[in-house]
Amino acid sequence: MSIMFEKVALLGLGLIGSSICHGIRAKGLARHISGHARSAETRAVALEIKLVDDVHVHAADAVKDADLVILCAPVGACAALAKEIGPHLKAGAIVTDVGSVKGAIARDCGPFIPQNVHFIPGHPVAGTEQSGPRAGFAELFHGRWCILTPLPGADSAAVAKLTQFWEGLGSMVDTMEVGHHDLVLAITSHLPHLIAYNTVATAADLETVTDSEVIKYSASGFRDFTRIAASDPTMWRDVFLNNKEAVLEMLGRFSEELAVLQRAVRWGDGDTLFNLFTRAREVRRGIIAAGQDTAAPDFGRGHKPK
Amino acid sequence: MSIMFEKVALLGLGLIGSSICHGIRAKGLARHISGHARSAETRAVALEIKLVDDVHVHAADAVKDADLVILCAPVGACAALAKEIGPHLKAGAIVTDVGSVKGAIARDCGPFIPQNVHFIPGHPVAGTEQSGPRAGFAELFHGRWCILTPLPGADSAAVAKLTQFWEGLGSMVDTMEVGHHDLVLAITSHLPHLIAYNTVATAADLETVTDSEVIKYSASGFRDFTRIAASDPTMWRDVFLNNKEAVLEMLGRFSEELAVLQRAVRWGDGDTLFNLFTRAREVRRGIIAAGQDTAAPDFGRGHKPK
Prior knowledge:
2 copies of one chain form a homodimer.
Chain A: E1 5-11, H1 15-27, E2 30-36, H2 40-48, E3 54-56, H3 59-62, E4 68-71, H4 75-85, E5 94-97, H5 103-109, E6 118-119, E7 122-124, E8 145-148, H6 156-168, E9 172-175, H7 178-204, H8 211-216, H9 222-228, H10 233-242, H11 244-266, H12 270-289
Parallel strand pairs in A: 1-2, 1-4, 2-3, 4-5, 5-6, 8-9
Antiparallel strand pairs in A: 7-8
């Protein structure tokens, strides 16, 4: 692809920020990448592995003359960044973010972005359980959805350009209203993470089964929960603090359903169990049919010979 | 390896049974494999793909002269099989099983096995979300644990021989008391499966988010739950019906922990969330260190280019 932006500024250089850097380089989407990270170590790594052309202690310096600014920090850190960069943004620039929550971003960052700048919140639905500037890779977004949540009255040309940028990184792009985004992600992402964290915590606190037994026999189901429970704690704390209403709604429904299942176990109601398990299998088939996972057994996880 | 058994009989030819067949063939552990399956289709497939040397409508015919008999049926079907084969077992033979619950197997099958036969319940902690005679592969057990739960007074030579058999299939073997096995597996396997099924059911019943949205954005966490929720419904129904006490105990603890997390979300208690998420990450590191999973991001799941 040809160059879309003269200068892109990435504020935050963790898994997502560094993957965007690699993707921009791989496709030649920008002439210049400036970066900002709070941690000196991250800044040093970003230069060492050539994620960015220059790196700045202050976000305000990184965004100078940038045509595209992407906030890649945890959701709870974005408002302070927006406040800092607001006065330094170039007229006509696009500002976006990558947070897993969109209502809070629109509410808390929006007021700091000047009227002559296009603020379009966004969320690439992609990731791994790894964190940090060395975790990124250009293919992270390939075949994954990126959801843009333009605010009322957003400039359609700017939305089209940002769409094209994400498509350049390999994403499929969808647009959604901020509130609906937060509800969809509460069930597809936030609830599963909270449940995974909770399952791991339950296992860690047993008197009758040791931690080493839990680890030893984890291949039987528990292991998959630990993978998503290995994600960055700061990022996830911010998600739950900033999508409270939707998460509490989904948690309420989850607990209701769980009470039904628990009762079926207690009373030996095999039909209720069998029917629910069969329905769940259908959802899995839909996910494979939609190309969001493969049917390869065990995720094609390697089996080590002894 | 050299031949350990003249004749092995496999009662049930699904994922586990067919994988044992492939493993026996690959390592030359038996001279002859007889099979039994209830379904005519499974029996036809088993002959077609040469899982077994002969296949029988009646389990009693399959076990004739067998030195090793392995029950590979759902837990709830094992007692009827044991009753059927009891009078036809060869003196000195070993009978074992592969069920995820051991207390109920010992209680319900034990009485049908004659005194001159060695009954040693067992559980290979390995599997994928696939089912049926075509799902098996020889490497399924490589590097995975197999738990044997010998009953009081078990013959140590027979236990040693069965241990050697599972090691021949590539497993690491551990022994455990039946009740402790059921507690360990309740937390590492049964609870995670129940929670996964429940999460999928919760998502399928929302009015505000469509099924196609859930599927489209499943890569953000939900997907991993659907994989384990795709396992065989009959097998899992039987697990929950037969390990009721331990599962209810773990469910009670899970709900207690979840109430604490829910309260932290409601009251914006970021420290509680952060501390719990950080602890969960440590458990994940233990699992990787123990070789029960790889640290490869996203399970090394392929990213499709657009």
